[in-house]
Amino acid sequence: MKELITLIRPYQWIKSLVVLFPIFFGGALGHFDALSEGFITVLSFSFASSSIYCLNDIMDVNDDRRHPKKCSRPLASGAISISQGYFLIIAMLALSILSLSFLPERRNETGAIIGFYWLLNVAYCLALKQHAIIDVCIVAFGFVLRILAGGMATDIKLSKWIVLMTFLLMLFLSFAKRRDDVLRMNETGEAPRKNTYRYNLTFINQAITITASVTLVCYIMYTMSPETIANFHTENLYLTSIFVLLGLLRYIQLAVVDKKSGDPTKVLLHDRFIQLIVLGFGLTFLIIIYFL
After folding, report:
1. Cα–Cα distance for residue pair 280/275, rounded to 1 Å
2. Can you tell me the distance from the alpha carbon of 191 to that of 182, in angstroms, rounded to the nearest whole number?
3. What are the pLDDT digits (tens) for 227-255?
4. Which of 42, 39, 50 is nearest to 10 (CA)?
5. Which residues contact 271 (CB under 8 A, 6 or more apart)?
6. CATH number, domain containing residue 83
7. What is the pLDDT of residues 114-142, one digit of tens each?
8. Which domain covers residue 19, as residue numbers?
9. Domain tally for the chain?
10. pTM
11. CA 242, 146, 251, 174 torsion: positive or negative?
12. Rounded Cα gap, residues 94 and 89, in angstroms
């Protein structure tokens, strides 16, 4: 049972909380119906993503067996058979569909977005992840689909800024993760994945710098846009930019100095500095829009 749980990677479900971005940035945290619909969508997306993790591990099983860390994964180590992996794919997908049935409205539209996410990531596992740049763009776009699903399920209109910032931030994190692959390739002489040969530290470092810079500028423009000021009735949201800057700098430090950018989810779950920055950002944002 432990190996089965490890294969579906429940700790990665934290990524699906991006589904709640429309509620948070839409000022709808006090609306119970929106929260209920949002968490149902989070659950459905989590199961759908777990089915993709299973498929990805099946496709990468031979490469994972040669990897110093991934060789301990359930499929690579032989703790779980390939047939059991396929069974988990079907089971997780069924649970995702079942979860959607609890949405009171717009379940078909929300399901269509999740279905597109699933098909796109199947294509990613089978072929698209072998192409540099395309691979990180698909990962980032997967998070855009999460917030689109959240907006659809809760009937909250998404700001173009939120969509753009989500894509840019996740592109930044994806490049930082690829940096870990490049470092391992430089140390061992063997690429963790086939497309790693199309990356090097010079390119990755520049890509990280560019995406971090554009993300920060985009967020500042969002906080100062007439649309945002009119929506929240405040001009003070620009103050939260300091947390975005600190978060980006801290993550770059982890990637470049500490060389610990291999798994963004684990960074968020274990790095106290990052956690304090996220907490500070969330509290400051809420205080400004709800109490000032």
Report:
1. 8
2. 7
3. 999 988 899 999 999 999 999 999 999 99
4. 50
5. 250, 254
6. 1.10.357.140
7. 999 999 999 999 989 889 999 999 999 99
8. 1-158
9. 2
10. 0.91
11. negative
12. 9
